[in-house]
Write a structure and sequence with these properties.
The complex is a heterodimer of chains A (357) and B (144). Chain A is of the alpha+beta class. Chain A folds into two domains: 137 residues; 160 residues, Histidine kinase-like ATPase, C-terminal domain (Heat Shock Protein 90, 2-Layer Sandwich), CATH 3.30.565. Helix content of chain A is 66%, strand content 11%. Chain A has six helices and seven strands, in the order H-H-E-H-E-E-H-E-E-H-E-E-H. Chain A is rod-shaped, with a radius of gyration of 59 Å. Chain B starts with 8 loop residues before the first strand and ends with a helix. In chain B, strand 1, helix 1 and strand 2 form a beta-alpha-beta unit. In chain B, helix 2 packs parallel to helix 3. The radius of gyration of chain B is 14 Å and the shape is globular. Chain B has one domain: Response regulator (Rossmann fold, 3-Layer(aba) Sandwich). The longest helix of chain B has 18 residues. A five-stranded parallel β-sheet of chain B has the order 2-1-3-4-5, sandwiched between helices. Classes of the chains: A alpha+beta (357), B alpha/beta (144). The interface between A and B is medium-sized, with 25 and 20 residues.
């Protein structure tokens, strides 16, 4: 607002100027206020716009949140369902497991029953076999004794009534009966091994071999030189192992006796997991081609005329050694002697003692 | 053999052939003994305790009993047990004379009180020698 240049000279003009000034004065704060109000209004509008925008954002966030909650709820309910299914499955598995367990227990019980029945059956069979071998032992030997006896009596007391050929034939009858007696005894010795208990203890093999040697020397004379090395101790059944030494040594004596200087050597060597014992002779030996037949029952590689025997000695050796968890083998060259070996499992107690000391 | 004579050897044997051989062995042993032969356990016990058929025999016990194990009626083990548990007869030597080489029979016979256990060999000559030796041995030990 501007003052008019005309009114500057008169009172009226002055009044008018004054009034104008007053009006100007009055007008100035109003305008200011108006401007301020307009400014405030503008701010308010801006604020309102901002708030509206914020509200929009908020609404959008709210919707998003609701969406997420819905999604999560659905996920949770799915998980819940799965869990329920799993629980159901687990229950089914448990039931199946329980069923199987019952089945297994029943099977186990029936198996036990079956084993008990089978054991009883086997015990009966063993008893029958024992009765059988007892009967063989007792009853079959009696008629053989009679055949041999009467043949001998005829030869002795009625020799004049028969000619030389007749006497020779009678001698053969007697000899065969006696042979059959030995065969029966050998078979019984062999079968007895299968059913006797084998209590095991530590065995001084050097002493056992030496005792056996002494017995054989008493029986057959000291025509054969027998050398026994210091032998490793073994764990086993003493009576059975004595039988092994008896059979191996008597064989070695029998087959080396025809030599000018018969000699038998007994050795033993402890390895990590087995002890190997050997009996070596410088006797007639055997053809190694037939080594596989050596340890069979009633199998012989020499004629009974050359070397008497029934052919169970080595079969007994093999059975005893196998019962002890060992093995048997032999090596020979015909005419140069033989070596018979057997192994026994290394003694556990000895190993323990060694490691402890 | 008269039943009024005192008996030296009682032979308990059911097999006639074995009895024949044993009697021959005793004759060969030339010990000049009087032998009574019975064929089962019942007769053996009647003889030992002078009952039944043997009621009137002289009361002296035989100097040795040769006893088979497998016998009709009462078996040899029972005869042995009865002889060895009776104070009147337990000092009479009993030689078990059998075909059985079963270790259990040997052990059981000695447990019951047998004085010797002889396995009858198939070979006749060996049988004769064994029997002569064993009978002579027990007769000498048990001389009245």
């Amino acid at each position: 607002m501007h003052a008019s240049p005309v009114a500057t000279s008169g009172p009226l003009q002055r009044l008018s100027a004054a009034l104008a000034g007053v009006a100007e004065l009055l007008r100035t704060p109003f305008a200011r206020r108006l401007r301020a109000l307009e400014q405030a209004n503008a701010q308010l509008e801006q604020e309102i716009t901002l708030r509206a925008a914020a509200e929009l954002d908020l609404r959008a966030s709210c919707r998003e949140l609701e969406l997420r909650v819905a999604q999560r709820t659905s996920e949770l309910s799915e998980a819940n369902e799965r869990l329920a299914q799993e629980i159901q499955e687990r229950e089914r598995t448990e039931q199946a497991l329980h069923y199987n367990e019952t089945l297994l227990r029943r099977l186990h019980d029936s198996l036990e029953e079956h084993i008990a029945e089978r054991t009883a059956e086997l015990t009966r069979t063993i008893a029958e076999l024992e009765a059988f071998s007892y009967s063989v032992s007792h009853d079959l030997r009696a008629p053989l004794r009679a055949i041999n006896g009467y043949a001998a009596i005829i030869q002795e007391e009625h020799a004049g009534a028969i000619d030389a050929e007749g006497r020779e034939l009678l001698a053969r009858v007697a000899r065969n009966a006696a042979n059959m007696g030995e065969l029966i005894d050998g078979l019984l010795d062999f079968s007895r091994l299968a059913r006797c208990d084998a209590d095991s203890s530590e065995v001084d093999m050097t002493a056992l071999a030496a005792q056996t040697k002494d017995e054989l020397v008493r029986e057959h004379g000291a025509s054969v030189e027998i050398v026994i090395d210091e032998l490793p101790r073994a764990s086993g059944n003493e009576a059975m192992l004595r039988q092994v030494w008896t059979n191996l040594l008597s064989n070695a004596i029998k087959f080396s006796r025809p030599r000018a200087h018969p000699r038998v050597e007994v050795r033993g060597e402890a390895h990590v997991d087995e002890i190997v014992y050997s009996v070596r002779d410088n006797g007639v030996g055997f053809d190694i081609t037939y080594a596989g037949k050596l340890f069979g029952v009633f199998s012989r590689l020499h004629s009974a005329r050359e070397f008497p025997g029934v052919g169970v000695g080595l079969a007994i050796v093999r059975r005893v050694v196998q019962r002890h968890g060992g093995r048997v083998w032999a090596d020979s060259r015909a005419g140069e002697g033989s070596t018979f070996c057997f192994s026994l499992p290394a003694q556990r107690s000895e190993a323990t003692t060694r490691s402890a000391s | 053999m008269s039943e009024n004579e005192a008996i030296d050897v009682l032979l308990v044997e059911d097999n006639p052939d074995d009895a024949e051989f044993t009697l021959r062995a005793l004759r060969k042993a030339n010990v000049g003994v009087r032998v009574a032969h019975v064929e089962d356990g019942v007769q053996a016990l009647e003889f030992m305790f002078a009952t039944g058929r043997w009621l009137d025999r002289p009361l002296a016990s035989p100097r040795v009993v040769l006893l088979d194990l497998k016998l009709p009626r009462v078996d040899g083990r029972e005869v042995l047990r009865r002889i060895k548990t009776n104070p009147r007869t337990r000092c009479v030597p009993v030689v078990v004379l059998t075909s059985s080489r079963e270790p259990s029979d040997v052990a059981q016979s000695y447990e019951l009180g047998a004085n010797s256990y002889v396995v009858k060999p198939v070979d006749y000559a060996e049988l004769i020698t064994k029997l002569s030796d064993i009978v002579r041995y027990w007769l000498q030990l048990n001389t009245v």
